[in-house]
Each structure stands twice: as structure tokens, then as C-alpha cells.
Design brief:
Elements: E1 2-10, E2 21-27, E3 35-38, E4 48-57, E5 62-72, E6 77-81, E7 85-88, E8 116-119, E9 127-132, E10 138-147, E11 150-160, E12 165-173, E13 208-211, H1 222-226, E14 234-237, H2 239-243, H3 246-256, E15 263-272, E16 279-280, E17 283-284, E18 288-298, E19 304-315, E20 327-328, H4 330-337, H5 347-354
Antiparallel strand pairs: 1-4, 2-3, 2-5, 5-6, 5-7, 8-9, 9-10, 10-11, 11-12, 12-15, 13-14, 15-18, 16-17, 18-19, 19-20
Length: 362
């Protein structure tokens, strides 16, 4: 976020009656200056200047402002205003591939170019960052949100434009960083601005929009939660006794396991396409859904000191078995999905967390 200090000059003020107030009205639209920054001093001279500082401005954004002063005209107080002016805040520094270095984001070896960035859809977060791959129909995006003056990663997703579905979505969970403020489900599915709209399907008849990053995982701010309702964050998922059954049970267990202190839970959810391809309205239906979960502990130098993991895989149909019967290893999912998950975890700790030696119990 950015800040700015505005200054205005004035003259010819009748100081017999002190001006009631002075300041600036501002906003991101020239015709809608709805926010006010007040001058906190006193106007005692007929001419001079005053200033006010604006805080928590969006980076790389044009703001419009107008100075005003409320003065006595001989019978009543009236506003005297200046002309509307503008300024643009500094754009955020380029992040390079930094968001792809997060612990749970699968190893990416086929990046192509630098991708791009842009603003989130209205009311759905702070900014998105896109990374292109050598496959012209696959790209990766990270969505961020702002909270307490900090820009925080929401989740990272890899979308396949041919299948019109995310292959995986990766995110972290910590009870303090991604705090549950109970903002609720801010339903309203919309196109993810980081990807071509033609890559995104808006729903498939007979299937639910199965969240990859659950709405219930992102309850810190309304904007953060809204970003879980991008079409890129869902896949056609069988509803009865799956989406509303074992998948929901698993999501609740993962959320309950979100730690605080020096531990963090990392989650990758995704889909598989195995066996005979099934299409509905030209959209290929995933044969399986999976989740890989790893809990890591850190020392004061942000180094991973311990790790444990578990995974689940389900066929995309009604399920009657208990949740634990769908348990597998992260290694097994990696083999089937063709991705290397949690690549930033030290190899000795990663191996034991992924092969079932150090099992995470949810």
C-alpha cells in the first residue's frame, strides 16, 4: 500500500470568524470524491497553506482530490473548494517468481516468460500475478489480499485451458496469518481475471462447483473469501455423498488442524483424469479429486525443522465408505498427478512426510 501528502494554498480568508475546518476530499473517480482527509491545525492567517496525509492507498492507482475550506461568508458557513487535481501512487515492485517459491507450490520447471499482473475483480482481493508456462494452454496464478496493512498470498492455482479446470490449487493455513473472522460465504461465482475467460467453465449440469480452496478456509476478510469463488477455484464434483459427504468432512478436518505458533499447514488439492474420458457439455469431468496435506515446523531462522504428511484420493462419485478409507500417501498422488509437491521442504524431511513414515493425523 502507499501514502501521499496533499498541500493546498489559500488567501483572502476573513479570520474574524475562524474557518470551521479544512482538508481534502478524494477518491479514485473524478466525479466521486467520497473520502475526506482533515487538516488537524488551525487557520489563523488570511493566507497560507495546509496539508493532510493520506494512508492505505492502493499502489499503482490514480487518485483525484480537491482542497476545501469551510469559511464564514458574513451570514453562514460555506465551503470554498479548489480545482480537482490528481496523482498516481507508485506501482508495487515486480515480484518475479517469488510466489512460486512457497513451500507447497509444486515444482515448476516449464515457465515461459514473465507472465503479468493485474487488479483482482471488484471486491475480491488486492492483486493477481500470472506465470505462463511453455504449454500455451496451461498457466499459473497467485491471488493476494490485504489485511492489517499487509499483502498476503491467498492461494496459487494452475489452470488448464483445454480441460477448463484447475489441475491443482495450493495454499497455506495458519490460525493467525489466515485468521477466521467469520466473514461467511460471499457467494457469487465470477471469472478469474488472471486467466482467459475461454479457459473457464461456469458450471456443468449434474455436478456441483467443488471448491479446491474451501470458502471456509478463507474467512479473514470478505475480499479474501470472495476470491475463492473464481471459476478457476472449482471443478465439476459429484454432489450427493461426495461434495456434501466425505469431501466436506475432510475439509473440516483440515481446517480444524490449522496451527498457530511456529507450525504451518500446507495443502494442495487437485483433480486427476484417469481411465475413459467422460464429457458433459464438452467439459471433461475429473475422474478423481485429491488432497495432499503437510504440516511443517520452523525455527527462528524460518528453516523447516520437522514435517509430517498425509493425503486423500476419491473417485468422483457418491461415496459411502468412511473418510479414513481414502487415505494414501503424498508420494502416491505425485506419481499419478505428475507433479512434485512441497519441493522446498528439505529432502530428508520431505521424503518421510511423503512416503508415510511421518504421518500427519488430522
Amino acid at each position: 500500500m502507499s501514502g501521499a501528502t496533499l498541500t493546498a494554498s489559500y488567501s483572502g480568508v476573513n479570520t474574524t470568524y475562524a474557518p470551521q475546518e479544512a482538508g481534502f476530499r478524494y477518491g479514485t473517480s473524478q466525479g466521486s470524491l467520497t473520502q475526506t482527509a482533515y487538516y488537524d491545525g488551525s487557520i489563523t492567517n488570511a493566507s497560507g497553506s495546509y496539508s493532510a496525509t493520506l494512508m492505505s492507498l492502493a499502489s499503482g492507482t490514480t487518485y483525484y482530490y480537491q482542497a476545501y475550506m469551510t469559511v464564514w461568508d458574513g451570514s453562514k458557513y460555506v465551503d470554498i473548494v479548489g480545482s480537482v487535481k490528481s496523482f498516481k501512487t507508485t506501482a508495487p515492485a515486480a515480484v518475479g517468481n517469488g510466489y512460486l517459491e512457497c513451500i507447497e507450490v509444486p515444482a515448476i520447471t516449464n515457465l515461459s516468460g514473465t507472465g503479468g499482473s493485474g487488479s483482482e475483480a471488484s471486491g475480491r482481493g488486492y492483486k493477481w500475478f500470472r506465470y505462463n508456462t511453455s504449454n500455451s494452454k496451461q498457466a499459473i496464478a497467485t491471488h493476494t489480499f490485504e489485511n492489517g496493512g499487509k499483502v498476503i498470498r491467498n492461494y496459487t492455482v494452475m489452470l488448464d485451458g483445454d480441460k477448463k479446470c484447475a489441475l491443482w490449487s495450493a495454499h497455506a493455513m495458519h490460525a493467525d496469518m489466515w485468521k477466521d473472522n467469520g466473514v461467511g460465504r460471499n457467494d457469487g461465482w465470477t471469472t478469474d481475471p488472471a486467466f482467459d475467460s475461454s479457459w473457464q467453465q461456469t458450471g456443468v449440469s449434474g455436478y456441483s462447483k467443488g471448491h479446491l480452496v474451501a470458502s471456509n478456509y478463507r474467512q479473514t476478510t470478505t475480499a479474501q473469501n470472495k476470491a475463492t469463488f473464481y471459476y478457476s477455484n472449482q471443478a465439476p464434483q459429484y454432489q450427493t455423498k461426495f461434495n456434501d459427504g466425505v469431501w466436506n468432512q475432510m475439509e473440516n478436518k483440515i481446517k480444524a488442524a490449522a496451527p498457530s505458533g511456529s507450525d504451518t499447514l500446507y495443502v494442495v488439492t487437485g483433480v486427476l483424469y484417469e481411465g475413459t474420458a467422460k464429457y458433459v457439455s464438452s467439459v471433461q469431468i475429473p475422474s478423481h479429486f485429491y488432497a495432499c496435506i503437510m504440516k511443517c515446523s520452523f525455527n527462528g531462522s524460518h528453516e523447516v525443522t520437522a514435517a509430517s504428511g498425509t493425503a486423500y484420493v476419491f473417485t468422483n462419485e457418491a461415496q459411502t465408505a468412511e473418510l479414513n478409507s481414502f487415505k494414501t500417501t503424498i508420494d502416491a498422488i505425485e506419481t499419478r498427478a505428475g507433479f512434485d509437491f512441497f519441493p522446498k521442504v528439505p529432502s530428508d524431511l520431505q521424503t518421510k512426510a511423503e512416503n508415510g513414515t511421518n504421518v500427519l493425523t488430522l
